[in-house]
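Researcher: Next sequence.
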Amino acid sequence: MDALSTLLHEIRPRGASFEQRTLHAPWPVEMSTDAPLMLVTLLSGHGALRSKEAEGTALGAGDVVLLKGGGFEFAAPGESGGTPAVSLSGTFAVPSTLCFRVLDGLPDVMVVRAASVSQVVEMVSVEMRDRRPGRQAVLDNLLSLLFVTALREWLDRPGSSVPRWYRAQTDPVIGCALARIHEEPEVPWRVEDLARLAGVSRATFARRFSEMVGEPPMVYLACWRTCLAADRLEQSDETLDAIARRVGYADGDALSVAFKRIRGVRPAEHRAAALALAEPALVKTSPA
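Model: Next structure:
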């Protein structure tokens, strides 16, 4: 599995917050969310997105906007009584620490034009008109597909301010080594091992890696490993020693030292905080 697939694997739409709106000119509709990520697309008509980051961005049918939380206004142009626009929105849960490695490096507003995502938007439009059983499950999965398709198109667009590691994946010198770090974090990698994979000297590899990724190879590796460990602490009941071996540390003590240095808290504290955040949701969904 490539790095982007790994990082986005657990991003899922929350069906309860899936919403379709009809936008009547000239009155704007306010949309806001406390979710870390929102997707909005126009199923028909035209509109304009207004926010602090994208004042007056024009949108047409099939265009997709990815927003990193916050609030904004959506408005249909023209005079009162004209043909309304129809928007579809959904918010996404981001339970994975790894997912935030993607989101943290992205702007707050990303616009992807219809030509790049037209097939998926059309599938969503067709399903919106269908009232068969299972509709919500299908729409949730289509929304996931639309999100990943739109984000990938935006990341690959020339000039996009993408995270440095994303561009580095296709670098002829370090791309292969970066992929092995992502796929096999449990291997006791050394800079010379990674340089050998790249077919260059240790010095050349270390210099090129720092230039492309923005940090030395071993620093990046440690951050990747502790992100993986953070996810396992949140999502499993594995022991610290088991998690440590899974992500490339000799034992729980070694992981704890690295985790504290990089993330500022000990693994036990991170797990306790994640459990505390999950408890209100569990109470809310429990039967009366």
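Model: The two ends are 42 Å apart (CA to CA). The domain at 166-276 is CATH 1.10.10.60 (Arc Repressor Mutant, subunit A).
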